[in-house]
Amino acid sequence: MTSSVPPSPRANARPLTDEEVDRIRNDFPILAQQVNGHPLNYLDSGATSQNPLSVMEAEQEFYEQRNAAVHRGAHTLAFGATETFEAARTTVAAFIGARDDEVVWTSNATEAVNLVAYSFSNASLGLGGAAARRFRLGAGDEIVVTEMEHHANLIPWQQLALRTGATLRFIPVLDDGTLDLAAAAGVVGPRTRVLAFTHASNVVGTVNPVDELVALARSVGALVLLDACQSVPHMPVDVAALDVDFAVFSGHKMLGPTGIGVLFGKYELLADMPPFLTGGSMITTVDMHTAEFLAPPQRFEAGTQRISQAIALAAAVDYLTETGMERIAAREAELGQRLVTGLTDIPGVRLLGPPLGVERIGLASFDLAGVHAHDVGQYLDEAGIAVRIGHHCAQPLHRRLGVTASTRASTYLYTTTDEVDQFLATLREVAPFFGVHS
């Protein structure tokens, strides 16, 4: 099957070829296994990506050769661990166009969003002094999100509004899964203090116009937080060029391990924010009644750090950089359109999100009339095809689109065109198997 639709204009590089993808797959041992007697067809990278050998080896090498606490101790292992740990920060910062001191390690993107929200909450209680006044919220202030947000970029803001008395508002979604930008101008207004939105939807694949939304926020003096979980792994992202104030993403979605996430924050903002977690490793002076805190990023990294995970994430970044983010984006643009072409040709399938030819990341979610998403996923799994089913931590978006659950196929740099075609061919069998006829 071929698609007549060219890659997204965002992906203007030469896509990875099938031959190159075959070679890439040799670096991912998990992809060689069989599931239910069939070769594994892993189409759930939007939830968690697989790890190349170099990432696993980087974490193992740390434990075999360098294991020690960082920023503590005066012995050789401690120096080596700290040096490698901070080199990982440099690698990740360069990958997103940030300064080293603008990258904060977290456990995941969810924690990163909560870090910002709780810091603002602490500022609203008067912590952080005069420097933190810009982050204080109260009755009359507004926080704006979108109707397509992952729960991780919605619930922390709901809770912040409850704690501070601020009002939470949202930019609605149109029937095609894109944001209602005309309505956005009426939602973001002079009372808006924070605008938080996803770069790319984990459900419908929509790539949001960051420049337009940032400009809207700037026009009213609001801060911007970007959920980059589905963009940083799949396309070139330069946070300085995007001019967002904060951005978050997770290691496990970009070939890295679980347990490591990243908060990017403009340094002048991080420097004025009160900390979220407190304890050791983030202080300068402590007595029995008061404490003074380190400068960012260490101010936000209390306790023993995710050392091996950060080092492994840097190895993942090296792998992505060597492969070429522009080429990865171009490949996934093709795969995304291939999914859309095939899905819209299957009777009973309702594609969620933009139609054929509209820019999307390499994933697609759909509803199959008469068959629950869980049954669709189980049938595909019997054929060795791993997809995501459910509401994908985005219940409001599913409710807006008129479904309670959907099935999602998501690709990555190791996904072959044959795997996409096998998925589509197997999906055609599902409705007849369950006795549903269009």
From TrEMBL:
List its EC numbers. 2.8.1.7
GO biological process terms, semicolon-separated: cysteine metabolic process
Cofactor(s) the protein requires to work: pyridoxal 5'-phosphate
InterPro entries, sorted: Aminotrans_V_dom (IPR000192), Aminotrans_V_PyrdxlP_BS (IPR020578), Cys_dSase_SufS (IPR010970), PyrdxlP-dep_Trfase (IPR015424), PyrdxlP-dep_Trfase_major (IPR015421), PyrdxlP-dep_Trfase_small (IPR015422)
Its top-level enzyme class, in one word, is: transferase
Please indicate which superkingdom the organism of origin belongs to: Bacteria
GO function terms (MF aspect): cysteine desulfurase activity; pyridoxal phosphate binding
Record key words, sorted: Pyridoxal phosphate, Transferase
Catalysis performed (reactions): (sulfur carrier)-H + L-cysteine = (sulfur carrier)-SH + L-alanine
Keyword RNA-binding listed: no
Q: Which PANTHER family match?
A: CYSTEINE DESULFURASE, CYSTEINE DESULFURASE 1, CHLOROPLASTIC
Instruction: Write the protein's name.
Output: Cysteine desulfurase
Protein species of origin:
Cryobacterium shii
